[in-house]
What does this fold into?
Amino acid sequence: MMDDFDRLDITRRTIMKAVGVGVAVANLGNVTAAPSSRTSDTPQTAVNVALDRCETTYAPDSRVAHYDIEAHEKEGAGVSLHGAVQSEYLRKKAIDAARSIATPIEANDLAVLDASAWTRTVGTAIAPVRGAPDGDSELVTEALYGAHVTAFERTSGWTRVRVPDGYLGWIRTDRLTDAVGGSFDALLHEDTDVSIDGLDKLYAGTDCAVVSHRQNENDTEHTSSEQITVRFRTGVTLELPADAVVQPEPVPTKETIVANANYYLGKDVPYLWGGMTTEGIDCSGFVWMAYRMGGLTLPRDSDQQQKIGEQVGRDELRSGDLLCFPGHIAISIGGARFIHSAGSANGPTTNSLDPDDDDYYEYLDESFEEARRIL
It folds into this structure.
C-alpha cells in the first residue's frame, strides 16, 4: 500500500520534470513570452522544436535553471525569440539552436535573468518560496532569516529568487531586505528564542558569522558560561550561548549527520511539503538540513539528492548513507534502521527495513531503490 507521502513525492517529481517549479507566467521587465502558435506549419514551428531540444539538453531541470522561450516568424523573413533564460550560456545555446533551423534570428527580446541579479537576504524567520508569484502557489521550499538570496526581478509584490538550496522560486518582496557583506560560515545549531527585528524565534540552520566570544560570570552561583556574539546578513548582531552556534568542519562525520537528524525527533515536527524547520519539514528538506548543519549543502529535492555520492550495497549500509525510494529519501542510522520525515508518520521518525523489527516499514523495504554514500 502506497502511503500519502509517497504519492505526494512521486507527483512532485513528475510535475517538476514535466513543467518545472518556478516557471510562472510573469513579467520579466518588459519581456513577456508571447502566446504560442506552434501548430502552424511555418519556420517558427521548426525553430520552437529546436528550442525545446536545446532545453532538454542544457536546462533539463527547471527547478534550478529558468528557460522559457518562444519563437515567432517575422514579417518578411527570419524568426524572433522572446522570453527569458537563466544565463548567457543558455541564451547563446538557444540562439545557436534557432540558427540551425532558420536565419536571420533576432534575440533582442530574449532576456538573461543572471544579468540583472542582485543580492538580498531574508528579514523574517522563515520565508516561503513559491512556485509562482501567488500566495496560493505550491510551497517549493523555504529560506531562513539571513539567508543569501539572489534576486532577479520583481512583479506584483513578489521577487523571483534563487535560495541557498539552489531552487528558483518566488518570495514576497516584503520578506526580503538589504544584505551586508562578510563571511557567514556559522549556523544556529538549534531553534533559538530571540528578540530582534520584531522576531521572537530563529530556526536551526540559520546562517550567521561569529564576531566575538566572552565568558559570562555568575557570581551568585560561582559558575561561568561562554557567550558568543554573532552577526546575520541583515546586519543585526546578537549574543547567544556558545552551544547554540556551530561552525561546521569542512567535511562532517557521519555521526554528526545522524546527530543533526536526531535533533528533529521528539519535537512534534509535522510533515510539511516544502518545509525546512521544526514548524514543518518534508523528506528531502530533512536530509538537506541534516547535511547543511554539518557543513555540506546538498541539492534540495530527493531525486537530485539521489545523484550525489556513490552507490553502496544494501548490506553495506552505515550511518549517514542516503536511502532512496520512489519519491522519498531517508538517512541510514546503521544496519537496517533509518531516520526520515514521513508523511505517513506526520513528520520525522525512525523505521527499519528489517521485518523482525517492531518499526518495520514494509512498503519502503519492498520499494527500496538504492543507497548513496556521501561521507
